[in-house]
Design goal:
Layout lengths: L18 H7 L1 H4 L21 H13 L6 H8 L3 H17 L3 E4 L16 E4 L1 H16 L10 E8 L7 E3 L10 H12 L2 H4 L15 E9 L1 E8 L12 H18 L4 E7 L3 E4 L16 H13 L5 E8 L5 E3 L5 E3 L6 H16 L2 E7 L4 H14 L3 E3 L5 H14 L4
Parallel strand pairs: 6-7, 6-9, 9-12, 12-13
Antiparallel strand pairs: 1-2, 3-5, 4-5, 7-8, 10-11
């Protein structure tokens, strides 16, 4: 890409706001899912294409919006000529790279025009940038909930440990030797009597036997493996509503929550459409919807393969969808599709996969972004089979429902 030199800009407006504020202002552009809203002009023309030219224009729109500068800095910015604005954008992009929010990628020769920016220089959001966007999404989602007690996953089971719950048990081999002195001595006195401990020779040792040992009990806190099964069929951006971008934000927020508050847990993301594939969290910002159909069974299959590799006490699938199953992978690899009603073959094969989840003690919780009657029928059947819950929600309330469900079950019990 050509480099254009501009006249030197005096002043440092690039330091008058935080890059975190800029990343937040650009989040709709960085997480775009391909949804077109005719009533919104912001970032619409980019179609989620992460080229450097689109990034420059998105930064320009953010600077002009008045969200980043204070009143004095905004007035200075408004007085800049076109060349000075371009130089300011250059400085900002350089800082974004220096602070590892984005990586710039040179244009590749021979790139096709479809989806590759016609050979233009591109950029990608780094793991640090994705983690920051996940943190901001988590803060926004938890804000309306008030104070939340985030911690490790409590269950009904008890085990010996350091954090006690007030009860004790007889020591068994393998327990943490966190002795309950009072209970241990009480056992000795009950067996030998108090007199034996206070009378006799001054230095006679107390006869403590193995059966006297008592240890404090603590709540057993388990680890959990979670697969977010995210519907990215075409309906997720149809009907005048973007359902996929909020779902991506929730997935990133959940990832940040697990990484910071439940470090023993794992989270994997599986997209399902005509087929299914796993994507790393770091690549979620670039994912768009499509193809058209909903192969729920293939998503469940992949989720089970992932969970089978995880040695965790609890295993769960969080499915976010807005459509009933409408596709099926046949034994010969062909995709059978039927978008009309509840196809008996598709539904029966999908429910058989749900039954396999149940036999593997995998819970399925479903968050529905639509109220279609056939979808409700299917989801209610899944919930009844797999001990899970079904939530009727919207893109605006999805995060609150999902995070409240995730935390409440961890802070109480899942067994």
């Amino acid at each position: 890409m050509k480099r254009v030199r501009y006249t030197k800009f005096t002043g440092d407006l690039s330091s008058s706001f935080g890059l975190e504020d800029l990343m937040q202002a650009l989040s709709d552009f960085l997480l775009d899912s391909g949804f077109y809203d005719p009533y919104s002009s912001r970032f619409q023309e980019f179609n989620g294409d992460q080229t450097m030219e689109n990034l420059r224009e998105a930064i320009r729109q953010a600077l002009e919006s008045g969200e980043l500068f204070d009143e004095e800095s905004q007035e200075k910015f408004n007085q800049l000529d076109a060349q000075q604005v371009e130089e300011l954008i250059d400085q900002i992009i350089e800082k974004m790279q220096e602070q590892n929010f984005i990586n710039a990628q040179p244009p590749e020769e021979g790139q096709s025009q479809q989806g590759d920016g016609n050979g233009e220089a591109r950029f990608e959001v780094t793991d640090k940038g994705m983690d920051f966007l996940g943190y901001k999404a988590l803060r926004e989602l938890l804000g309306p909930l008030g104070k939340s007690n985030l911690g490790r996953h409590d269950t009904r089971h008890e085990a010996s440990g350091v954090e006690t719950n007030g009860s004790s048990k007889l020591y068994e081999f393998g327990d943490t030797l966190n002795l309950d002195i009072t209970a241990t001595l009480s056992s000795v006195f009950a067996r030998e009597g108090i007199a034996s401990a206070v009378e006799g020779e001054e230095h006679t040792p107390m006869n403590i036997e193995y059966a006297d040992l008592h240890v404090h009990q603590s709540d057993y806190q388990s680890s959990c493996a979670t697969v977010v099964l995210l519907d990215c069929s075409h309906s997720m951006i149809l009907y005048g509503e973007d359902r996929f971008t909020p779902a991506k934000r929730v997935a990133m927020a959940l990832s940040h929550l697990i990484r910071t508050q439940f470090p023993g847990d794992t989270l994997n993301i599986v997209l399902f459409h005509d087929t299914a594939e796993e994507v790393p969290i770091s690549q979620l910002s670039r994912v768009k919807v499509g193809p058209h159909y909903t192969n729920t069974r293939e998503g469940l299959r992949m989720a089970q393969r992932i969970l089978a590799r995880q040695n965790k006490d609890m295993k769960q699938i969080v499915m976010i969808t807005d459509g009933k199953p409408s596709a099926l992978t046949l034994p010969d690899g062909r995709i059978y599709k039927n978008a009309f009603g509840l196809d008996p073959l598709v539904i029966s094969e999908t429910l058989e996969e749900v039954a396999r989840c149940k036999r593997s003690n995998i819970m399925i919780n479903t968050f529905m972004l639509a109220s279609d009657f056939s979808l409700m029928q299917f989801v209610q059947t899944v919930s009844a089979m797999c001990r899970g819950k079904a939530y009727f929600t919207t893109p605006q309330t999805l995060g609150n429902y999902l995070l409240m469900d995730f935390m409440s079950r961890r802070m109480k019990t899942i067994h």
